[in-house]
Design brief:
5-stranded antiparallel sheet; 4 helices; 211 residues; globular; 4-stranded antiparallel sheet
Length: 211
């Protein structure tokens, strides 16, 4: 797992917000800041999640407004972050593009990922034992179908490992039980998650419930 401090996480989240707001104002992709620490230039998978607050302040109620990222370490972290943040705001096909006015109601999460690792249980029925809720995210692949769910999703939904596997299959556009078929490839990964506690507010490291 990449070593990132809370201060690193604050920088990532604030940079993601700046990238979104800059693009919504000018339709120009933000250039990375100069003189960042070496860690920000290392190739790394990253996802940016936008959640809109839906309840009274402090209630914690929110709904997904956009989430896009890079599962594999194909770009330097800072470049992948900026591209993912803008894409989450304006390219997520599940939602209309975010508006600049909405940003005052949106909190941002940044998930920095480890490289995916294929799960290779000989008995497919034993796959749930290789998945730890609160530690692992999942990727399901079969043919041209591919779906990914971040570790925090299973925690938020209170899923057990089997349910998590099933919903990742659904995310890939596949039947929920397709993880039992050995032709379906299952990968796990871990993530460090940094999240805003309020729009443009304090940033904390998310506790996903894993040791």
């Amino acid at each position: 797992m990449m070593e990132l401090s809370l201060e690193d996480g604050r920088l990532l989240v604030r940079l993601a917000r700046k990238a979104v707001e800059s693009y919504l104002k000018n339709e120009v992709l933000l250039s990375p800041p100069a003189d960042l620490k070496d860690v920000f230039y290392k190739p790394c998978g990253v996802f940016v999640t936008l959640n809109r607050l839906t309840g009274p302040a402090g209630s914690g109620r929110k709904e997904l407004r956009g989430c896009i990222g890079f599962p594999e370490p194909v770009k330097p972290l800072v470049d992948a972050l900026i591209e993912a943040a803008v894409a989450a705001a304006v390219e997520d096909p599940r939602f209309p593009p975010v508006t600049l006015e909405e940003m005052s109601t949106i909190v941002i999460d940044v998930s920095v990922l480890t490289p995916p690792r294929m799960l290779e249980a000989k008995d497919r029925g034993m796959l749930p034992k290789e998945v730890k809720v609160g530690r692992d995210g999942l990727i399901v692949e079969r043919g041209f179908n591919r779906g990914l769910l971040l570790p925090q999703v299973a925690v938020e939904e209170n899923w057990d490992p089997e349910t998590f596997l099933s919903y990742t299959c659904i995310k890939a556009g596949l039947p929920p039980g397709c993880w039992l078929d050995e032709k379906t490839r299952i990968y796990s990964f871990q993530a460090i998650v940094f999240e805003e506690t309020s729009p443009n507010g304090e940033v904390k490291k998310a506790e996903l419930g894993c040791p």
